[in-house]
Design goal:
disordered N terminus, binds 2-hydroxyethylsulfonic acid, single chain, globular, 10 helices, two-stranded parallel sheet, about 45% helix, binds NADPH dihydro-nicotinamide-adenine-dinucleotide phosphate, about 15% strand, seven-stranded parallel beta sheet, Rossmann fold, alpha/beta
Length: about 270
């Protein structure tokens, strides 16, 4: 076969593959679970829209994943309603049809008894974990409803299922994510949209560094003495969930390390 025909054929295959690919928009893709999810989906035939606030990390990850797939980055703070809606509405045509939305951006801020809680920490957790998830969903759901297809995965937590000492507002925010997930599944059921929640236990990411405001020693101590989950464990599961046949919706998953039995019971080697 002449070389130029071979080249044209391989270009066609590439283009067709690109058309067959689904697009996943992942919030909180600059770190931890979101980043690992972007990495695994990029290597498994998804186009990726990376979202986060840290521009340098978005750029670095976009470069890394471009070796595997088409990638586009959106920089926004999920708390900024106007910016969330605007940025998502400016997605280039090739990325504008979102098949899979992974609402992952979130963090705990502080770990204090309710009487000592910091109002700014409370605002951050409610505004990011709950309202931010809603703003991003609001930007994407109408197109899924119109197409009568789509898949939304909300990252909750074991803190969505139980409350632990000093977890008060973080647990409240994640209980809200759990309830909103169930509500989405009910309201979007007539449109054939899949909605599920994934609820990890302790995962060694930057999560505790954020919770303890950069106190790296205190953060590292959280994961000492046992094998915690790592971001790739949850990313693997997300990949499994999004690659099921369309009639299968994994509605609710709680995932802990073997060492963890509940939010407060962890078998540690002392
Ligand atoms: P990381 O701190 O590693 O990642 C958090 C991600 O959220 C970052 O990419 C961060 O990006 C993004 N983010 C935080 N605030 C905002 C904001 N205001 N606007 C936009 N993006 C934001 O933590 P994890 O990967 O562990 O956390 C991911 C999700 O998993 C969270 O919802 C968390 O609650 C949940 N989870 C985590 C567990 C754990 O033990 N680690 C256990 C259970 C659930 P950037 O700063 O660049 O904006
Ligand atoms: C994070 C779980 O128990 O570390 O969502 O706060 S925990």
């Amino acid at each position: 076969m002449p070389l130029h025909t071979k080249k044209t054929m391989s270009l066609c295959v590439k283009k067709n593959n690109s058309k067959m690919k689904k697009t996943a928009l992942i919030t909180g893709a600059t770190s931890g679970i979101g980043k690992a999810t972007a990495q695994i989906l990029a290597k498994n035939n998804f186009k990726i829209v990376l979202c986060g606030r840290r521009k340098d990390r978005l750029e670095e990850l976009e470069k890394e994943l471009s070796a595997f797939t088409e990638v586009h980055s959106l920089q926004f703070d999920v708390r900024d309603k106007k910016d969330v809606l605007e940025k998502i509405s400016t997605l280039p045509t090739d990325f504008s049809v979102i098949d899979v939305l992974i609402n992952n951006a979130g963090n705990a801020h502080g770990l204090d008894p309710i009487q000592n809680g910091d109002l700014d920490d409370w605002d951050a957790m409610i505004d990011i974990n709950v309202k931010g998830l809603l703003y991003v969903s609001k930007a994407i759901i109408p197109q899924m409803v119109e197409r009568q297809s789509g898949h939304i995965i909300n990252i909750g937590s074991t803190a969505a299922k139980e409350v632990y000492p000093n977890g008060n507002v973080y647990c409240g925010s994640k209980h809200a994510v759990d309830a909103i997930t169930a509500g989405m599944r009910i309201d979007l059921n007539p449109y054939g949209i899949r909605v599920g929640g994934i609820h990890p236990g302790m995962v060694a990411t930057e999560f505790s560094e954020v919770r303890f405001k950069g106190d790296a020693d205190r953060a590292a101590n959280v994961y000492k003495g046992f094998d915690p989950l790592v971001a790739e464990d949850i990313a693997d599961i997300i990949h499994f969930v999004v690659s099921r046949p369309y009639h299968v919706n994994i509605a609710d998953l709680v995932v802990m390390s073997t060492a963890q039995a509940s939010s407060t019971i962890v078998k540690k080697n002392v």
